[in-house]
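Lecture notes, unit on protein representations.

Consider one protein chain, 746 amino acids long.
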Amino acid sequence: MKMAIKYLVVMAAWQSTNALAQPFKAARWITVPYAEGTGKRNCPLFEKSFVTHKPIAKAVLTITALGLYEANINGKRVSDAYFTPGFTVYNKRLQYQQYEVTKLLSQKNTLKVLIGEGWYRGTFRNENSDEARNNFGNEAGLIAELNIAYKDGSHTTIATGPGWTCRKSNIQYSELYDGEMQETRNSVQSSYPAKLSDVNVNLVLQESEYVKKHETFSPVRIFRTPKGEQVADFGQNLAGWVKLTIKRKAGDTIKLGHAELLDNAGNFYAGNLRTAKAEDIYILNGEAQTLEPHFTYHGFRYIKLQGTDATKVKLQAIAIYTDLKPTGTFACSDSLINKLYQNISWSLKSNFVDIPTDCPQRSERLGWTGDAQVFAGTAMYLYDTKRFYSKWLRDLEVEQGSNGAVPNFLPRSMPNTDVDFGVAGWGDAATIMPWTLYQAYGDKALLREQYPVMKKWVDYMTSVSKEGLFLKNGYGDWYAMGASTSVVFIDQCFYAYSTRLVRDAAKVLGHAADVQQYETLYSSVVKRFREVYGKFNRKDTRTQTAYVLALAFDLLPENERAEAAKLLAENIRSNGNKQATGFLGTPYLLPVLSRFGYSTLAYTLLEQQECPSWLYPVTKGATTIWERWDAIKPDGTLQEASFNHYSYGAVGQWLYHNMAGISALEPGYRKIQIKPETGTLNWCKASLITPQGKVAVHWQKLNGKLKMTVTVPKGTTAMIYVPKDDNSGYDLVNAGAGTHEYTSKE
């Protein structure tokens, strides 16, 4: 029976023949023909040999899989992409890829494709279980079509189906959480005709950039711990794996365990991995070998090596992440803040492995919606995330419940089930992220695409509200240190904010009736907030996060905002000039202080080095952002937490927007504002590649004056605020494209 496939065809720019216009015209899905175990499974290898007799003009491989695939032709990889076809809601959206492979072909050819478990059928957490398996199916699958155009104008197609074989590979198992085991000794495995399979799936062409290898690190030291463990320290916490070059006896077994930290006694610490084993195992063949995994990755800085002397082998840590284009640069006169910025960047890299994850090390690695939305504004300064987030938001769209609820993480790996419950701050990714993308890139098409999702989320909150109050009791201000903020207070804040964003999106898109509808709803939601929560007359509403959210979302009457900002400042000072905010309050803390005239206090918080603070982890040697402010306590005690978690890195947006002073006055930076807050620093230098071109700012204090150089891209204008000598205000200059230099005045 011919497979049933629905196609969503997105043409690649280089496609030039009708043969490539629609994929898999001739191909059939194939799967493993032999019985597989119920536990960890061998990675199957599919093969097809073929001959070409004429000069080739172009050859393109179109391919996807149920699981992860790695394809090679004549022993060479067809691409430098990893973890294809990527992580999506497979039962609703499966990506396929296309590669030009002309140079890989010869007269006699063999196409081989390895299939790993991946997110499709490997062990991976879903909403019901931390160790779920076969989330989307229990059979590996492959479909591929190699279209060859000859120079004489003829074509031929090599497609999966009859004539393909399948056998076991030397990869005994490969799991995202537990790692990979390879038996590298030569052993001939029996091949069998691949089994044909019927698969019904929506196919979409690759939507985001590929996951690729990036930076490499050699050990900065190799040592024995007090327990006698042999450990290599690569000096940087990252997501990726270790490449091992070694020659030992055939049959020797090498084990590499992975961890982010040493404990306070100096021993290898894997206590925060939950159920993940994070161990790669190699059985050697007696020859000189270079070994690395195919279908797993780890979050680590340290490895524990067993089976050989670490000083007699070559170890190389390789960072892997989605191949995004860098857009931002930042540096200032404070080395600790510069290190904080680097840590933010590394936590982004480590958690942008095809989807925006919370952490790369433990048995989680999920696309938590709350984490994603609080960090999105910062991410858009550092990298071009438009395609990356757009892909993930399309999965949010298909995961959204029939009642409009948005899941707490996605993909949920729960096919054929409906979401019926959503919580504030997490579900609001449905409104906040499309709006943030629109502000950064000015693309109405994406906003239009996500607008129905935005509406459905707000309509869901309205449908479950009682007397105008959204009361879902979600996660609240996750991991805040200090007094807890009322969860229902937070609920109402985000209910109002999301409603406002839908109204604003409706204005942009020209939906007049919706503008009126959601303006009326917004006024009602804000009115109920003021009636029930606006007096801050409860202990759990007299918190930093409560004041911050009310001010950030404009929920108070204008004549009451200055007083609330004053109460926020007093709260911070009485707390020893330390923040007491968690995941939801932290992104807005410094922006609110700056907005209401407390820039000096914002700098005080940023430069604080005692716990909790942004610089406290830096003083503890952190190379990434921690999940908890006190993940390592002042006495050196480790908490069971992620040490590579970008959420608190949301402060990066303030570094660009306020410290450097770069912000968009119109979506897509069609009009730009430069308004730096110089604080205690001597200089700051930053740049941003916008849709209009490169914006750059360099300010420095010299001999009592502030000198500022600003670059404005073509086709835009900028409102440039030059700080006065006495910090009493700014002098405003309107500027066009070009590079401009300014000096402060009295």
